[in-house]
User: What shape does this take?
Amino acid sequence: MTTKQNDAAVLQVHELAVAVAARPVLQGVTLALRPGQVVVLMGANGSGKSTLGLALAGHPHYQVTGGQARLGDADLLALDATARSRAGLFLSFQSPPDIPGVRNNLFLRTALNALRQHRGQAQIDAYDFLSAARAEAARVGLPEALLGRAVNEGYSGGERKRNELLQLALLQPKVAVLDEIDSGLDVDGVRAVVAMTESGGTARYLSRFRSSVPIYAFSHHANARRRMALMRDVFPMDYDSRGETPRQAARGSIRKLVDANLLGPGDRVVFTSGEHMETHGATNTLRLLQVGEDGTAEGLGEL
Assistant: This one.
């Protein structure tokens, strides 16, 4: 994690050392970020990527034991967490927390006006803010309805990450540290899991996880469907996939859900099936599909 320092850099870190609970985690981290530059930190789990962001943001559990960090002309390490944010540092959380009882639009406008006051700018009123927030929410793919709900409460993983991007767009910091911002985004918006199963084993495995979407389990075995009806989040469906390829089964099962008004155009679906529909065994096909305008499955690829 070393890059050549540059006097024009907006963020400069030199020989930074960080400890957590008296245990050294980072040693000798040096980097420089110029305006508009993107730096990607890669490493194994536990290598200290999140630690660097949290230490720069001023998290009290992350003790800087050596080195320097400057944001523009400011000594970043001499500032508390609030002052670092006002100076232009933004950190997106790897796991954004809930803030029960605090509406998202109020939270965002309060944060934005605090920054505007620090910058000597006029406060933004509720009407102008909501107009800007709606536009940015649409740009990052966050449902407008979430602006009026408590911060992150009941949000999916992808919605939480999009809410972080909304904050970034509205606050316009000098430097943004994004911790796994893409995690959860690709599967966000999934409306159902479609599982082709003979014995119900796949559905039983999936039901162990508290799914935020229904699991439609397709089997022609009546006994398997009766068992699956007792599983959490699982909705058994009668479907005879014998002799069908996974591609044909995907088309047929999704068409059945569309005809039953359980799915509609634009909905995204996780499809899973076994290689041979009549053979009991582990599931070995997983595909993210989308329902087309005509109700057919799209994104089948080589399925």
